[in-house]
Amino acid sequence: MRKLLIAIVFFLPLTVNAQTAYQHIQDEPLYNFLDELAAIHVIDVNSAIKPYGRDQIAGWLEQAWERRYELSRPQQAKLNHYLDEFALEVGELKTGRGTLYRRNDQLSIHLLPPEITWRDTLFRTVIRPIYGIRYFSSTHDDFFHSYGGAEAIAYIGDRWSVYASLRDNYQNKYRLARPEYLTREQGGNYKGAGPGREGGDYSEMRGGITYTWDWGSLGLIKDHIEWGDNHHGSNIFSGRTPSFAMIKLHMNPAEWLEFDYYHGWLVSQVIDSTRSLWVAENRYKEYYYGKYVAANMYTFKPFDRFRLAIGNSIIYSDQNVQPAYMIPFFFFKSLAHTYSRGILNQNSMMFANISSRQIKHLHLYFTVYIDEFATWRVSDPERHNFSSYKGGLSLTGFPLRNLFLTGEITRTTPMTYQHRVPVTTFETNNFNLGHYLRSNALEYYGAIRFSPAGTLQITASYVYAMKANVYQYKYGAEKPLDSNPVLKDKTWTNNTFAIKAEILPLPNMRLFLEYRNSHIKGYDVDDKEAQEYLNMFSPKYLHGDTQTIVAGFAYGFN
Length: 558
Fold this sequence. Notes:
Number of helices: 7
CATH architecture: Beta Barrel
Low-confidence stretches: 1-17
Strand content: over 45%
Shape: globular
């Protein structure tokens, strides 16, 4: 593996004009702003593949600056805010009243926001703390989620980028994300909160090292990724699992073609008894089975601001990495027929994404994820393919200039994202890699966002989500798995209206206040009581009719 990476890097082109350190997908205000700029034809983005590189974002911001007089005053305020936040990438040091110490154009020590920046002809870096807290006051209980840590971003020469982010999370009273919960909370590998404390702790270490050339980049990273256009949860790769290590490749060799690939090391959490052993008296050392994912996406741009993306992925489990799955351009299911012929196949899937911003102000998108497909099922009303579909549209700056409207529908059939073999499920750390509602589910989502002044934005949203019958993917079922009724009986529903105000007072910082009115209900279905489904799919503070106020601030997104 090491020799392969060295060889790839050695033969990369020497002409370089960009560097890649990734901006985290949870920086929703930034990603929403870039969507706005793309919708009004100021920039052009491939929003189906996230995260974006910070150098790429800085380039888009500079494009917007050249056309700043076309933007509204709130958009200009956001643009100035983000140009300050990405000062290192645009070749500047921060200035302003928060500067504690500055030495020429090399060193800057800032108090507001707190960070240290260094820049010379070879090396540029920024180091800053991370802290955030969300305080929840609901009908049932009051609690909080806090996190703290530090992050660093560095650029070496013209080719190399290094970034690292460490966050220790603490959630008192409740664990907000469990593998079975139907929420969009970020997943974590929890440990106990400690003596005398309820809830849970988890640590998240992300970062990587990347090499960039003029039409692509290659990196060894541990991060979250999101594939598929969406505003309320992707149904390809959602990015809500704990982060995992991967080799990530991006290429843009022609204006009409982009290619993305990664090979990731997942966490199966399935014990391999053949490797586990007693290491001392009454002390048993356990090992997990190896679990890996390979995925690629070809994005074609036949027309201006129109993109068609198609790709496939595979989850496989062997003691060693399979080199064939590290050839980025393959159709992986064919490889599975070669390497697991006559035994249980690996878990493969296909997907596609269509995005059109050809009409100014309007973004139309459609995503399909196909877990298992047979042509004969299409004409059989009693059978169905295992698939998930998402369709959406958004309007930016129309009919009012500072107004953003969006709507989405997501529909997923039974057995999608499931697999009969525990070590090849579409999961890592038991969290589903795909849509947060998982199989046999339906969601309607709508939102209105308005920017009255400065960086302040107010968002009103509504979601209706429904989880239908829960079917087990197992051998010996009484009837074929593809004949299980689609969306037949409700087991759980979520009706939530929310209104949220958010402002960006300093670079890399946001303050927010949100009100939620939720009605989350379970149903008596399939010999299970309503409360059992409610406990399974929702944290206790969200049961029944609930009003919740969430307030807090965050410093640090990367």
